[in-house]
Structures are given as structure tokens and as C-alpha cells.
Fold each of these.
Amino acid sequence: MQDFGAAFGEAFRLLVSLDPDLVEIVALSLRVSLGAVLAAAAIGLPIGAALAVARFPGRGVALVALNSLMGLPPVVVGLLVYLALSRAGPLGPLGLLYTPAAMMIAQMILVVPIIAAVSRQTIEDMKEEYEEQLRVLGVGPSGMVATLLWDARFSLLTALLAGFGRAIAEVGAVIIVGGNINHVTRVMTTAIALETSKGDLALALGLGLILLGLAITVNAAVMLLRRTAGHAAFA
Amino acid sequence: MRRLGLLLVAAAALLAPLAGAGAAEKFITVQSTTSTQNSGLFDHILPVFTGKTGIEVRVVAVGTGQAIKNAANGDGDVLFVHAKPAEEKFVASGGGVERFDVMYNDFVFVGPKADPARIAGGKDAVKALQTLAASGAPFASRGDDSGTHKKEKALWKAAGIDQGKASGGWYRETGSGMGATLNAAVGMGAYTMSDRATWISFKNKGDYAVVVEGDPILFNQYGVILVNPKKHPHVKAAEGQAFIDWLLSAEGQQAIAAYKINGQQLFYPNAKK
Amino acid sequence: MQLSPDRPARPAGTGGHVLPVRATGVTIRRGGRALLDGIDIGIEPGPLTVIMGPNGAGKSLLLRVLATLVRPDAGVVTWGGTMPDRGRAPQLGFVFQKPVMLRRSAIDNVRYALKAAGVPRGERDRRAAEALAAAGLERLAGSPARVLSGGEQQRLAIARALATGPEVLLLDEPTANLDPAATLAIETQVQAAHRAGTTVVFVTHDLGQARRLADDVAFVHHGRVAERTPAHRFFSAPSSEAATAFIEGRLIP
């Protein structure tokens, strides 16, 4: 397939020339997905920690629901957010449809279950190890949650990373609520979808390679952080 | 608390510009179709309009069916699509103010150069479909309720063929946009129907070529409608109307006629003077 | 919620005595079996008590009940004559068979315990350093706790438990996973703490270790205290048949 060679050439050309449209698209992708992950972390980490530490009736149901929500199809989320943000929908007056904020909301909804579920697992594993020790030191429930979140912080980065991976690679939701508007809501994935539909497979693949490179960079950065922060000692 | 505060400040700093982007000074949202977007027409004409009026035009490109639904929800100021009966219904229902012809191009049938169904060179679209159905050669349909899909269904009806019965057999509905359907057709060796503009600008043609063209029945009219501000008070009626007026003006019509790929004109302006 | 642990988990200066630690009629059943069967035991200030018994006798479980880590199905545990409460937990040091090291440096592990006990911030550095020095770990103060050797980790765990100045130190087979040199270091550390005035309860099934350490032996068998005897008498003339068999190295039913 001759497209592969052409794709690498295209990706290289776009990168070397620092194509302004490409820079804009990459910057928007990062802003939307990082914003979505931060917002999702603010919601998902406390949920994960609470589910890990608390025992209450219906917890099993909550866990099943949470794990199922991780597989939520982006298109469904996009549709739900569209219906909510549409002018005819309940949040229509906010005028958020077809803005980066709408894309962030959709990605946040996709990412919250991932962060909550992964952090729940991480924190619960650590709680198994810590709980009795903390109790004999006289640490109460809130102190325990704080200690677990703090001591698990490097492992929790993995949860955020998983969320970021889903957000940045997702197209189904953002194309519906963002509309793939040039210079406004066009991100890497919707640009790839557009170039594919134009039959410009080389450019689409080139953009895909850049997206892949971005994902590798972010993952490597986080891994490096975990290493230097004393992987052996703290993780 | 300090750390969480920092996190929130960081998040706010990150989000603030996003919220701002939703409230840019002067812009309109146009619900339009993949064919106009993929052909590159908007990239060609919109800068001219924006340069003249300062009004930014944000295009959401989806199938005609979805574009009309979005507009009916009030998610857009202007509707710019190609399915006249559906457009007239939209206006009659009160969703739009008035419909204007803007331009036309035509539909073509494309297929592999080997032409297994032996329909190449024909000028009769209905007859070509009958031949194609009898041959059992695969046909890729948009299957997405777009303007192109509506047109295609009308042609099958005229040919007296219930193509739906062959769905999953030789009749393959991709449920996708024009470009994706062209990719699928090329991938599986199927014939398909495309608007000429998308076909000309399509870059993954492989060994495909136009096999049927020039039948008057394949005429493809584009219309433009202002979403009804009486129904959706937030509609930017003045700016939207300015865009429509410009499209219909001599300057707008010339801009449309001037858009060419490889020397081929893609759209023919035909606004009523 | 805060992410930082820099907050006392309880107000400073609460307390009161935990000694004597007393269990009365404590019963724990699991799967229809009584693991502890109406145990009565009291830990008075002073002696180094060794709790002995064969594997599965319930000695570790008993220790956990005394520390309120396990709630009994029947019976009560009192600390200093009243119901146990979290505020007094730092008065009762506890060391697990497998030391639990927090993901931070050795000295920060001790600081954490001091903070949890409500020790004012200004005192923590000094007291943590003293605790490490007493355990011979000052050289490793800045090392991540989880990369220390097994013996070093257990010494740190004991130093951490002692840093808050508890009235009583409970140890659950602290040397079970250690080599003889590390075991000796732990025994020395515990004996030093005892000499300094800390009451000690030490669970072991190692007869030699019991001989080296005990002032007083409680022999647990089948979920009951079979006998409680001063050490010099226990090893020469135990009063229960089970303890006699155990000391002689016979299998006991």
C-alpha cells in the first residue's frame, strides 16, 4: 500500500513546517483533553476514593455500574450531550453547543468512570495494605483517605493517563457536540475523520501518526516522572 | 486544601479561554452538508464573505437529514443543504423563514473502470440502475438520509426496483458521509452515486471513474434557508440574512463559480435575480 | 478533601491510660468454629508478657482484639478500665508480623505516626530523629522506607510504634520472617524499650525466643488461655498439659 510511505512523508512535512493549522489543531486537542481530564479527576478521584474506603449498601451495584460506564460508547455520550446542550435542550440557553467547552464536557463524561474505576482499584489495593497500620496509629477515616490519595499519587497518575488516552483519541462524541468547525472546534481526531472522508488518506494517516507521537510523548513523560519520583520506593 | 486550590486554579485557567471561544464577537453557525465541506467550497468562499463583513461563518457539516434536524432544534442560524422537498417541508413547518436556490451541480455514478455491470457511458440513470440491479454487481449507498441518499432512493423508485430487499446483499448501506461511502465503494469494488463536487475533490479514487453522467434527472440543487428567529429567538437573523444575501448576490455567485479543482468547475450558481 | 497528609488526625493531648488492657469473655467465631472461646486476659503495667502457643491457637487474633483491630462476637475489651477509643490508640503501639511501610522516607514514616498522635509540628523532627537513633537507623533516615531490608523495616516499624511514647507495645511475631542476626537486633530493641519502662506483649511460637524475653507467659491453646505463669515457672513446670507437651516438643491435640 503506497499510502504508508506517503503518510510518513506527510506527517514529516506537517511537523517540520510547523503548519499553523496543525499547531492550532494540536493545541486545541491538548487543551480540550487536558481540561476534560482535570475536571474528570476533580470528580472521579473522590468518587474512586470513597468507593474504595466506604462500605455501604448498594456498593456492589455502584461498582458494576462504574465498570460498565467505562465502556460507554462515545457516540452515545456525544448524543446525550448534544441533546442537553442543543438550543432545544435543557441547557440550550448556555449556548455551549459547537464550542470547545461542549467537547470538554463530553470527554469529561467519558473519562470520569475510567478515573473513578482505576483509582478505586488502586486505592483499595493500597487500603488493604495500609488500613490496619493506620488504625493502630489512631488515624481516622478522613485522614485515611487523605493518606491513601497522597501515597497512591504516582499510581493515580496512571488513572489520569488512561483517561487522557481515551479523551485525546476519541472522535465520536466531539464530532457531534463540537461540529468539527474549522479553527473553532477542529481537533486531531475530527480532522482525521474529515481528511479520511475527503479520501486524503495520506494526510489522515499523517495526522494519525502525529496523534500517536503525542500519546507516546505524554505517556513517556508520565513514566519518567514516576521513575524519577522514586518508582522503587514510592510506587 | 492548598493543593486542591492550585488544581482548581489551573483548571480554571485552562478552561477560561474555552468558555470565551463560545462567545466570540460576530459569528454565525451554518448547518450544511458534507458535500459542500469536503469539496473545499467553503474554504474558498467563506474568507471572501468574512473579509467583507467581519462575520465569521462556522460550518457544521453533516448529512442533509441531520442538518435539517439540527436546524429544527435551533442549533444553527442558516441551513445550506441539497434536498428541495425536505427543505420546503422545513420552511412549511415554521422552522425556516424562506428557501432560496443558490447553486447546483449534478450527481454522477462512479464505478470500477473494469465495469462488471456494463453500465459505463450511459446517459440514462434509471436504466443504468436497472441494468446494475440485474447484474448483481455491488452498489454502495449512503444510507444516512442525506440529500444524496434521498435522491438515490427516488431514482430506485423511478427504476421500479425495491433495492431495500437486497440490503446486505449487493445493496450495501454504509450509513456514512459521501467521502466515507466513496472510500467504502472503492474498497469493495462497488458502484455508488456521488455529487460531482465531492467526486472531483476526492483523493482516493483508485481505479474508479465516472460511469454515468449527464442525465437531467441527476440535477442537484442547493438551497439556503434562514432558521426562523420567531421560533428560535437566539438566531442571529441579521448576520444570517447578510450571509444569505451575499450568497445570492452577484459577488457571492461569482465566488461560487470561480471555485475550480484541476480546472473543473464544481458548482454552478443559479440564484434567481 | 485534602490531598496532603499534613494535618493531625485527631486533637493533640487527648489520652489517658490504656493500661491495664483487658479482655473479658472474648469470643470470635468464624465458619461455626470458635477461634477465640471466651478468653479472659489482662495486661498490667510492667512485665514483658510473651503470648505463646501452636500455630492456629488464636494468639495473633487475641493480640488484634486487644488492639481493637478485630471486633469480638462476644465479650469486651477495655483500655484503662474504659471502652477503647481512637484518641488513645497512640498509647498502644502495635507491630505487625509483616511491617507496613508507608511510601515515604524512613524518618517520614516516624513523623507520620507522631503527627497522627497529635504531637506538635515543632517537636516531630526531634522526636523522630531520636526514635531512629534509638533503633540504630539514623543513617537510613532519608532512605525510602520500602527499599530497606526486612530487618531494617521491622526495626523502623518498632521505632515508629515507640516514637509516640506508648504505655504498651504489642508485637505480633515480629521476627517470624527474619534471619537470626536481624532477630537478635529486634529482641535487643524490644528489651531496651521494656527497660525504659514500656510494657510489652510479644506473640511468638518460638520457644527459644520466649525463654530469652519473657517475664511472664500466657499459653494460648484452642482459643483459650490454657495457663498464665511467670516465666521461670512456665519453662520448668508448666501447669497445663498442653503447655507441657508444647515445651517437650510433642504434637499437641
Amino acid sequence: MRVLLMSGLALGLLAGGAAQAQTPSFPSSGAFGHIDDEAAQRGLAVYQGVCASCHSLNQLHYRDLAGIGLDTAQIAGLANAVKLATGQPATPDDVFKAPAAMSMGGAVPPDLSSIVAQRRDGTRYIYRFLTGFAPAPAGVTMLPGHYYNRAYPGGQVAMPPVLRDNAVTYADGTKATQAQEAADVAEFLTWASDPNLTARHVLGIRAGIFFAFLTLVALATKRRIWKQEG
Amino acid sequence: MAEPTADALAAHGTETRRDFLRLLAVAGGAIGVGAIAWPLIEALNPDAAGLEAARPVVLVSDIAENATKTVQWGGQTILIRRLTDQQLAAAQIVPMSALVDPQEVSERVAPDDGHIVVVIGMNTGAPCALQGSAPGDPRGDYGGWVSPCDGSEYDALGRVRAGPAPRNLAIPRFRFIDKHQLQLG
Amino acid sequence: MQSEAKQGVACPYLIKDRAPGGAWHATLPTLLGALLALLLASGAVLAVYYNPRDAYGAVQMINREVNGGWLVLGYHNTGASLAFLALYAQLFRLLLTRGYRGPARFAWMLWVKLLAVLLLSGWLGFVLQGGAGGALSLTHASDAALTLPGFPGAVALWIFGGPSGPGTLARLLVFHVLLAACPVWVICWARCAARRARPAPEGRAVAFWPVYASQYFAALAALALFFTLLLAFAPHWGQSAQAMLPGDVLPMVISYPWYLQPVAHLAGLIPGDGGAILVVILAAATLYALPWLDRSNGAPPGRLYRGLTLLLGLDVLALGWASAPVLQIIFGIWFFIHFLVLTPLVTAAEAK
């Protein structure tokens, strides 16, 4: 299992190639990828500290955070710190608190529950998008209230650049560079979009080995029977 | 005894190997079918939202001293009260002989928080909802709950002290998730 | 030895079929049947949790909240993909070997009916997911259906219950479930018809158990392996990321799953929503009429016919792949030319 995961990572690195040299390799990508709980927990901190003021996470409950390794007490504490619209603190069974409805010059911030699945090569896209803000190239006329982003289709997006160095402080002491924050939140959103990614890959390896073995046995049985009875 | 011929040996070997293969194939097939079918059966267990309804989480840290929170759960009214130190001290000195249904204080309060009492708000005499939870309700002579139907009176720990009711108020199944929240069920 | 003695009286039928790889295609209907059974079983579980009034939310909920719900969704999703793969392979094989003629005609017509049922069921499944593409596709379909005059219009009104709204998916769910029962009958029927059409084996008859059973078992095990790998490592293979967008985001172009894409592009031959429905009906009728379009009178398929059939297979693949409307029209017209013009000409020429 460990070896498979590592070789999957190595393959992912090779496949990444020079064109995407600036994009880090994500533990979750590739056939044998798995969600890195520590990175996803840091990504949760980024989501809560930065993204959550505009973007909802409507399909997730606080209890679901057990999937990235938070224990019951941590989840209860985290939920308890959130004040719902009713004035009550949230419980683990509540959906992530949505921000007040807003409109960025006509653009509505999308819900992030499935954002990685909704974009082609979603994990890397989120990373490239969050690190893709730049001054508009010469000759590009910007729409009012828009920002230039290399990764965004069309290049102009209503969302301002929000990630910068030390936008959050990580509990585990990791240095919160902009690239680190982008990579961590991409990993967190990958988990949010596909909470069963690790389980699916583990199942694929186990059931794959079993059915490969069964196929060989069945083929041998068939050959033998046909030789005998034919 | 004649030695078995090479041919017979070979045939015998083939025969056992085939039988073993067949056995392996049939067993593997059965395991495979079972493994494929299992998730379909497993998926019919209650989902997370159903479990949420079955096992609600209640915040208790916001209950003031001597106040009661009522929660509807599975068709029953659950009463959660935070006791004052005085109430607990007063309850400690009540002799067991004075009780209809003798139970120690430690048996009545929540195991993880000695100030919290969780009971089912149903009179154990005539089936009837209890008064004493809302701020203006009468609480009877024992500072707990009273039944408006048969006049039974309970103390702050939910122990029956007067009236026709034969048993203390029932305690539902619950556990503390942390010091702020408890989960019923 | 024993096996040699048996071979002495062995039926040539069986020996011929034992050529390496030769008989494996005979397991295709069984594989398709197994996949349909899996679709029925997983569909029954999904129906427990599905909510037509909030289709997108229901699918999300099954994926996230139900115990192993993601796996049951995967069964249904991957199962549908592979069922179409098996059916397309079976149809292509019958075309290549002219397995639609003579006594097998009845079986061929059942296969075409199964194709129609599965396509309709597949489209309903696509719509029932509540994704962005499905929602737009449903709007197109119900708009087209409701403009139909007379009796077809009344049927459309009965099916969709008016313009697509919150209640439409509840109706379509019922049709999806009802259609699901049909393939079981059709596939049993087709098997019987095919068996009756097959020449009786000469010499000793070979028992199903264990000879054929062992082969079917091996094929099923290989299918399970392929299924597992697809489900675990490429769960959305052949489907666009668009399907993951909620239905209230209307896309510019609908991305269908791969198995509906050729039909969707073929439907674009006649512009307008009503025209699309007409083309699909014409295409199904063409396949249905194939036994009469073939003028070969029992001659074996020649090189030209087989070449053209391979070309048709490539054409259908290209039709699904192409995104440019011009290419879609060219590949779509070729589909009809193949059956309505080339097949009668070539088969008649080869029969001489």
C-alpha cells in the first residue's frame, strides 16, 4: 500500500512535466492518491480564515470533518465557536455556516462544496487560480471591479486576490506562504468535493487484486475443463 | 501390488488439481458476489442525516443555573436542568428512607457534569407532561417538577417525593461530547 | 486417453468455437445481463434516497451521507457505462457478421429494441442526476415535446406534465424505473430467439455445466476486474465535469455521457428540438429495418462489406467525439448513407 502510494506519487511527478513545474504535486492526485489530512486541516484553516467570508460550503456538515482526521471534541469545539443566524452556536450536525448573500458586481461567489469536481483538473486549477493573480498585461482593458488572473478563463475575475503570506497562522507551525496556503486549500477542497477519494482508491487496489486473482483462477479452470471435457 | 502407471498418476494429479481449481473458482466467485452485494445492503442502514435525527446534539453550556432546557426527541420531551450548588447540597442530606424510589444523587446527575440533570418529562403516575421547566411554572414544595394531572411532585433531581407517582423520572440515554454539548441516544 | 477418446466423437461445433478467443464474444449478452442486474439492484437502493424535487441535492446527499452511497452511485454510473459498451459491442459484432439475417432476424430486432430502451433509460438517468447539462437537455426535450400537435402532443403532455418544472423529474423517475424492467424481458427474449436461430450442434451435445459455465464465469470475473478499476480510478470516465454543476447553472453546450453523445450529435442533423427527436426515431427505424435493407440472400459477408462496417464503427466513434457542427453533420449523414444506400448496394453486389 505504502509502496504503491509512493510510486503513484513518483509517477504523478514524472507526468507533471516541466510545463507545470510551478504547480506542486498533490498527494490526492493520481490513481493511487490519497487525501493528506494535515494539508487538508491547514486548508480548512485557510477556508475558514479567508474563503468563508464569501464562499459557502453548503453540502458539508461540521461532523464531516472527521474525514480529514478531526476528532469529535475538536469538531464540537469548532462548531461551538460558530454563531448561527439564530444566535445559537452551531452543533456538529449543522451545515457549514454560509456567509451573507453577496454580489461582487453581479458575480455571485460560487459554493465550494464540489468546486474541484466541477472544474477540469480541479485541484491544480484551484491552486493555479489562487496563485494566478497578476497585473494585467499591456493591452488588456479591465472591466470595472475585475482582477486579472492567468488561470481564469477569459483572464478577468470579480474575485480579488485574497491569499498572501501569513493570511492565516497554521496551528502546526507550517510557514504560511501564499503558495502553501493555496496548495493546502486546494487539498481541502479536493476532499470536500470527493470525501471518498482515499476509500475509493484503497477499495480499487484491494478489489482489483482480488478480481485479478479470480480472473486468473477462472481462466485456468475454464482451460482445464475445456481440455478435459472438450 | 502393481505399481501405478505413469499415466494413471498423471491423470490422478490432473484430477485433484482440477478439483482444487474448481473449488477455488467457486469459492472466489461466491466471495466476489458477496463483496459486490454487500455495499447495497450496507447502504440501507440509516444515513448520516437519519442518525442526526436519531441522535441529536444538545448544547448545555448555555443553560443558566436553575434553568431548564426542553428538547423534543423521538416523541418525548427531554428536560435538561443545571442545578445550583445549594440544590445539590440540599439533595445530598435527604435520607434514602424519605424517598419513594430511593436513588443517590450520583445516580441522578450526568456522569460527566455533576450539575446537569437529564430526564424524560413524563409523569410516572398518570401519563402527563410536567410543569416546572418554564421560568413562571410552579415547581412544587421540592423545587423540581409537578404533575398537573395527579399532583405528583418531583425534586430537582427528578426523584418522586410526593403523590401517586411510583418511580423517579426516567433518564434517557445520552453522553457528553465535550463539556459544552451532549448527545442523546 | 480419456480426453482423446472424447475428441473422437467431439462435436465440430464446439471445436470450432474453441479457437483462441473465438467464443468469447458469445458471453457478451451474459455480461450485459449481469450489468443490467447490477443496475437494477443499485437503482433500487438509490431510489430509497433519491428526491426528484431536489435531484442535485439528493445525489450529493447519497454521495456524502449514505453509508457507502458513493459506491452504490458508482455501481449505477459505471454499470450504465459498461452496459452501453457491452450493447454497442454486441450490435457491432452482429453487424460485422451479418448476424441480423434469416432466423436471427427476430433476435436482431430485439437487440435494437433494447438499444432504444437503454438509450431512453440512459437519457432519463442523465436528466435525473439534476446536473447542469441534464437540466438544459430536459428543457429542450420538454419544449420540443410540448410543441408537437395532435396525438403525439397529448402523449408528450402526459409524459412531461407540462413544461419542465419541479414535478417533471418525479414523473421521469417513474418512467426510468418502469423502463428498467423492460431490458430484463428483452434480453431473455433475445437469448431465446438467438438460441432458436442457432444451428443445432452436430454430434454429442455439450452440457452447459461445467463447460460453458466455466467460460461465462471467467468472462464475468474479467468484467468485475475491469469494473473495479474503472469505478475506483476513473469514476467519471466519459462524463464531463459539467454533470457536477447544479441544475440552476445553465451551460452553453450540453455535454452528454459518452454513450449518449453519438445520438445527441446525430440528433443535430435536423435543426430544432422537434427535428432532433425525428432524427433519433429515423435512426432507430433504420436499424430496425436492416434485415430488409440487406440484399445478400444468405451470402457470407465479403471484404467490402466488412470494411464498410468497420468504417461505420469509426464513424459512430467520431460522431460522438466531434464537437464541430460541420463534422457532426458529415458523420451523421454517413450513418444514414451506410444503411440506406451502401448496405443494399454492397450486399446485392456481393451476393452475385
